[in-house]
Amino acid sequence: MTLEWEQVIVDSADPVALGRWWAEALGWVVVNDAADEFEIRPAPDRLPGLLFGTVPEAKTVKNRLHLDFRPQDQRAEVERLLALGARHVDVGQGEVSWVTLADPEGNEFCVLSDRRS
Fold first, then answer.
1. If DSSP codes are grouped into helix, strand and coil, which group holds residue 56?
2. Most buried among 52, 88, 115, 116, by the most CB within 10 A?
3. Run of H or E residues at 115
4. Closest of 57, 60, 33 to residue 44, by C-alpha
């Protein structure tokens, strides 16, 4: 295979603020802090990353692509993310084992049930 997954692009109103929020949420490092293209990665030389770019329009509907995270302790991670500024969202998921949250600009993501050792 000749393709390498470089990054996921996230449209945002404020790439720096949203990128810094995700860097804190994930414990990732900033590799580009330009105002119009803010990029974070797990480590400077590790892919894939998240690249936050500026768009003029606001988010209006549920994301068609979202990220899922598997924590060691779901409850603790949800509380930590809420304290950072995430919020609970209902996208029609019903009664499920994961928790659906949104980042400060409304992008949905899921915190799955606890990772099994």
1. coil
2. 52
3. none
4. 33
Helix and strand counts by DSSP (H, E) for the chain: 2, 8
| Mean pLDDT per 10-residue segment, the chain (117 residues) | 92 96 98 96 97 92 92 97 97 90 96 85
- Maximal C-alpha separation, the chain: 44
67-69 and 87-88 as β-strands: parallel, antiparallel, unpaired?
unpaired
3-class secondary-structure state, position 40: strand
| Bridge partners for 101 per DSSP | 88, 109
Provide the token pair at 112: 């799955």
Instruction: Give Cβ neighbours of residue 82 (< 8 Å, ≥ 6 apart).
Output: 88, 101
pTM of the model: 0.92
